[in-house]
């Protein structure tokens, strides 16, 4: 009973310490605080906490608690956290499961390719679960397929003699079995399985604005066609549907021996709608919601989430604004939440 009384007393003093520190920091931010002997900095907070609770508290828990308070003065963390304890579903977790929440990287494998140039950067990484491989695209034009089963990879290096545009994104077309990539001025379709002409590439151009991102719309059926979403530097989101008919030999507009076959963009039905007033940083179709999302650095029309039909009409779209815009977003089906990063 005496130990319990002592702990309650120590806990009360600790909570008073936290309140004083919060009041002090709020006064500092408003310019009303004058530094003196009563100032509570991290060292004083750490020393006082150790005096109150002794070895029951750890250095990293004290540091984490202090940082939480400093990052948000209006939302106080629970006092349990000073002992490394957290309320919620994780309370009853065995220690073995708690340890598994930490990701340890014991080894890594570096994969290089002779075609990749120095000072090049990866712009996109796409996992294709059904075929068990990963597609990467570099800024200067190297598109690579890493096959996890056969421990090998295919690669293709896009080089334009008259076009110095950088690749800005890529994805995989599940029905046509092609890789799609966008540059600042073109859409590239890579037939990595082509036997007649090794590493055959179709180039769709011209595109009026600078393309910045691309994403495949998951098809509902098994028709030989794929649809992609694209975003540009003017705030437009595009919807482009491609079928196998677009890649018939009679529609090619290039030399017979050329690996590049140019397709006129006018022969495609490209739908577009201006959704943002700044660059479109990312577009993505979310099958679980049957909606597409697009984000922008636009501080007013920062994130749009709506039916893909909205790109074909002028009806209002569901959107929200974030100061300084949104650079990235993702959806978690298990938690049913969308997370954005600005």
From TrEMBL:
Alphabetized, the UniProt keywords read: Repeat
InterPro entries cross-referenced by the UniProt entry: WD-EF-hand_domain (IPR051242), WD40/YVTN_repeat-like_dom_sf (IPR015943), WD40_repeat_dom_sf (IPR036322)
Question: What is the protein's given name?
Answer: WDR64 protein
Transmembrane feature ranges: none
Provide the species name. Atrichornis clamosus
Does this UniProt record's set of keywords contain Transcription?
no
Q: Record keywords: Repeat included? A: yes
Superkingdom of this protein's organism:
Eukaryota
What gene name is given for the protein in this entry? Wdr64_0
């Amino acid at each position: 009973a005496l130990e319990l009384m002592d702990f309650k007393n120590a806990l009360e003093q600790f909570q008073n310490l936290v309140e004083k520190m919060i009041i002090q920091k709020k006064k500092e931010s408003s310019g009303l605080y004058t530094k003196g002997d009563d100032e509570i900095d991290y060292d004083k907070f750490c020393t006082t906490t150790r005096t109150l609770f002794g070895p029951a508290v750890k250095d990293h828990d004290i540091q984490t608690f202090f940082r939480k308070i400093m990052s948000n003065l209006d939302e106080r963390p629970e006092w349990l956290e000073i002992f490394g304890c957290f309320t919620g579903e994780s309370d009853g977790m065995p220690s073995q499961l708690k340890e598994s929440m930490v990701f340890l990287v014991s080894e890594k494998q570096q994969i290089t390719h002779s075609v990749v140039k120095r000072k090049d950067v990866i712009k996109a990484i796409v996992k294709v679960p059904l075929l068990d491989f990963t597609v990467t695209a570099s800024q200067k034009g190297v598109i690579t397929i890493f096959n996890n089963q056969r421990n090998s990879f295919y690669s293709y290096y896009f080089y334009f003699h008259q076009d110095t545009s950088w690749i800005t994104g890529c994805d995989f077309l599940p029905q046509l079995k092609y890789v799609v990539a966008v540059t600042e001025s073109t859409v590239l379709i890579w037939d990595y399985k082509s036997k007649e002409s090794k590493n055959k590439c179709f180039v769709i151009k011209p595109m009026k604005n600078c393309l910045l991102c691309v994403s495949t719309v998951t098809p509902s059926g098994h028709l030989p066609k794929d649809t992609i979403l694209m975003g540009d530097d003017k705030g437009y989101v595009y919807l482009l549907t491609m079928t196998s008919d677009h890649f018939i030999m009679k529609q090619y507009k290039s030399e017979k021996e050329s690996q590049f076959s140019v397709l006129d963009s006018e022969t495609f039905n490209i739908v577009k709608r201006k959704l943002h007033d700044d660059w479109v940083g990312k577009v993505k179709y979310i099958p679980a919601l049957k909606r597409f999302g697009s984000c922008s650095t636009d501080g007013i029309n920062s994130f749009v989430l709506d039916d893909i039909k909205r790109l074909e009409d002028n009806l209002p779209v569901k959107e929200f604004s974030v100061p300084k815009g949104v650079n990235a977003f993702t959806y978690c089906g298990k938690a049913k939440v969308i997370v954005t990063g600005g």
